[in-house]
TrEMBL record:
Region (Disordered): 106-133, 419-442, 471-523, 722-759
Domain of life: Bacteria
Ranges of residues in domain Toprim: 235-318
Basic and acidic residues bias locations: 419-437, 474-494, 727-739
Protein name: Toprim domain-containing protein
SUPFAM superfamilies named in the record: DNA primase core
Biased composition (Low complexity): 120-131, 495-510
Family matches, as Gene3D superfamilies: 3.40.1360.10
Leader peptide range in chain numbering: none
Amino acid sequence: MPASPPLQRDNDPQELDRFKQSIDLVDYATRRHGYDVKKAGPRGHWHQLEKDGEMLIVARKGDHQVYLNPGDDRDSGSIIDFVKTRENQTLGQVRQTLRQYLGEPEQGWQAATSPPLPAPAAYAPKPNGPADMESEADRRARLVAAVMGTHASLTDRSYLHNRHLTDETIDSPAFQGRVFTSQQGNFRNTAFPLYNEHGIATVEQRNDEYKHLLQLPKTGVWVSHPTEGRDTPVQRLVVSESPVDAMSYHQLHHRGAEGQPNTLYVATSGTVTERQVELIQKLIDKQEPKEVVLANDNDAAGRRFNIDYLNELQEPRRAREVAEGQVAYDEAPRPVEWHATAAGKYHTALRVEFHHATRAEGTAQLVQLTAQVQQQRPTVDSALTLEVQRASRQETVVRLVVPNADSPALEALARTLHAQREMQREQPERQAHEPGRQPENFIRTEYAISKDYNRDLELLSQGLTREQVAQQARADELAKEQQRQERARQEQEQRQQAQQREAAREQAAQSPETQRREAEQQRQAAALVMAAATGDPALQRVVQLTVMEPTPADEATPSQAQQMRELLHKAGAAVELRAEADPGTGQLRSELNVRYHPHAQPDGLRQLSQTLDALDKSPLVTLTEPAEEQAERRQLASASSAQSVTKTAIIHIDEPEPRAGAAGHAEAVAEQLRDGGLNAGSLRSATDPATHQRHSEIEVSYRLDQPNLARVSTTLDDVARQPGAQVHEHASDRAERHRLAPSGINANVLAERTAGPER
């Protein structure tokens, strides 16, 4: 059995690098977040992913993949950034999520309460070739069977009880056969299967402080039975984000209440995928409920889900058979569509698309939308912005952005658009409705008093009244806002401290003593670089070999020492040979002075080191070499395979905002880095409007085997000493480039020898 990877410390940067190198970003995005691959480059060098109108470009950068959202220049980066933004997690939570995704054991409480993910090798042989490749269906069946077992049942209710769900709720006909216990070794979790037309698509496992979705595409939804039992006509369909929220809604609003409609519960287990919306609509088509209730979380994300549901879901569609066993649905026209997304961390955006026959119709619709936005302004102050992104003869696209706290205004606008769209549909395209019920009221929203219905259930279970729950919810929001403000205050304080340090460094840099010292250091560094580039003898190493052998019978026969010289010469060394014969003993004594550069090309150094070590074992040879230089030679030779690795560093530059059109310190540093032999990426800058301080970032890379490594290392060290600049690189990378860059000579001596006569 392969050994488990060692546990990583929470602040270990090498673990983040391992995540980037080990996890396929395309696979993660499609399986965990429902993205679809629309295009792919040759040999898979890049992929175009799409979901709900959002497009991502995933490409390979060095030894890992990165992504870019063309619609939001702030949404880009590695798998770390993808998880942080899509799953709203801190860096520590990202580490836990990706450890679970890779099937690695967690530390502390999580190791004690959560089962390890099933290793594929534990359930099926590893495929050896194309003929043995596991199909997607077989993989799904294997992973689901590992969690659900052969006789799935609910044997442990502790998690559900901890979420304040009663046995009466758990035993409701609605939830029979829809909640199970997953057993893996000594670990138990509560399992919620997600279904589609073909059966179980994936399984969500929950426990206290634990949440995990199988590494399968999220192409199913959790769905209950009707509350009055199987095969009974459904009157209401309730959609929520999690099965626990659905069960909490049932316990709060349905259990024991008179006259409640026969209800079917649906949950998406988090972020909604396009496939899940399709499945919910098919449930509506099949069950034909009289209403759909959107019971998502009472926060900005939950409102975005509801806004999108208003656009996507519709009343039961008319089905018609197009072929034997195949059914198609009549789609209602959509003269207007909308989609909500997160606009950064603190804002919500609504994209509205009008489809029309003439430009005049588009102008009229835009005027009407603007008037509706003006009606919303008293409730959102002046924080709502409207931007016309495209206006053509057949289409008008508008984007609105508000702070998350004002997202109810966008939801109200979406409901107005929904009502107008329903009324615009021609009467023959509508199905007959019950008297008194308008089609635009088929979908309605209900929000919990607090963040979600399970939190409501928790607070009400403590004996609080609804008014007290509302007060506690406001207190929770206030505490959350205070935490956000405190973080902002700390960030501002850190920026001010950085500015003060920069001012102090700049003041110190202006002193004559500092300028003289820096000039001397630059002169010495330049001399060192020149010596390394020209192969200065002072940087070379010398090994002496003494060879005692019988004198060759004739001059045509080469001696052992001469053959050794040829071997060493082919290995890249400069060799001087002196030989002297002893007439009395008939022995030939030869001395070989072997000179080499310790920072020569890696392959040559490895070959030379192997040749020297082999000759040292010969009984004819006595090898004389300082112990430190011998250890250095062997270390460099053994590490040569790693010297082709590309290293990266991030340069941060803080400076006052330059004048319009003028280049600043960051541009000068970028040019210096490129001149110093580094591969420098594009300069990314942002200006703080409050302090007019510009913060810039440059990503650079270099190779440990490039000939001008000494120049690269000197440039990085020089940038690190500049006021306002910081070089962020792994400590081991810095130590390695310092070790490999030519530095084995006293800089003062070298400077004196290369400076020339005084003038």
